[in-house]
Amino acid sequence: MFEPAVSIPCDHRVLVLEPYFGGSHRAVLDALLPRLAEAGWDVDLLTLPARKWKWRMRGAAITMAAEARALDAAWREAHPAGEPARRGARSRWDLVFASTFVNLAEFVALAGDALGDAPRIVYFHENQLLYPNRHTAEWDVQFPLTNITSALVADACLFNTRWNLDGFVREIPGFLREFPDHQPKGVAEAIAAKSQVLHPPFDPAPFDAAPVTRGERCRIVWPHRWEHDKDPEAFFAAVESLAAEGLDFEVAVAGQPFRETQPLLDAAGKALGKRLVHIGAPEDRDAYARLLAGCDVAVSTAMNEFFGLAMIESAYAGCYTVVPDRLAYPELYPAPMRYGSPDELVARLRSLVVERPAPGQGRVLADPFAIGRLATAYVDVFERVAGRR
Fold this sequence. Notes:
Layout: E1 12-21, H1 23-38, E2 41-49, H2 53-78, E3 95-99, H3 104-111, E4 120-124, H4 142-153, E5 156-159, H5 162-176, H6 187-193, E6 195-197, H7 205-209, E7 219-222, H8 232-244, E8 250-253, H9 262-272, E9 276-279, H10 285-293, E10 297-299, H11 309-316, E11 320-324, H12 329-332, E12 338-339, H13 342-354, H14 363-366, H15 371-385
Parallel strand pairs: 1-2, 1-3, 3-4, 4-5, 5-6, 7-8, 7-10, 8-9, 10-11, 11-12
């Protein structure tokens, strides 16, 4: 449960559901929830550890609905006539805010009267209709269907980018045509009508506190988790090409490696030698900020990216960002920072190693996504959906 740093009298409450409380999902909430508290929202935060995302989508609603019923029961026992500032309230909450790793339709059904008539917002960090599956099987269809039913039961849908929103709405009709019969109509239109883009915020404080510490050589960072959809193979192929040319630079890999990626890491270590100066997830946000502050160039090779908070944070830390010309990136990055092919990536990195970029070039790009710039927009949406504006 979230506890604001300062006790503020609140007359409205939000129930926040995040079954994958890690990575960018956690970073967004860590930035957002204190600002909601400052704006007068009391926050109940229900989370589960960030692991086994498919099982979270399948089962988190059961666990979280039970927790919600328990919280509501305790509130009813303590306030049998409703709280003084909320007379007539039918439940503990005025609003529900859920990520797409919750099957929101199942949660609403299982929570029952505990939610009263609280309206619901679902936040799309990603959507399964655009997710690049490595192994397609019949059960894979349940994940995009969960996204669709969650959107249908929500009163408002927020998407982190226009690419995410437009792609989701565009793919719905074709997906529903796969139904053998009784194919739903008007679903995409209904979801689009209650959807908007609201970029995810990040907390700039750790990056503001981290001193810029550039070494003697250009340092290239890859700040992503080691999953197939981030394509670490493409990154290492590019930097290994530069190493083979004899160029003098350093490489830092800030994501979490997994057992299946160990052979790739071993091969990269041999090819890069002393150029590989860091590998693995930093121990905390401050260490992560310090690592980025010591880098010159941040690279994405993602095959799946709906926003890319790590790249925005790298830009804010002062790195020059290099991203593929696909997915959500064209919406966020100017053409000089995008590449179209593996050869173009190598060429772009070669030029940055040879002519090292000045620190701080990316901050102006990232600044609009800092929580101080986005907090008011979030509060406005919460107030509107809760019926207070």
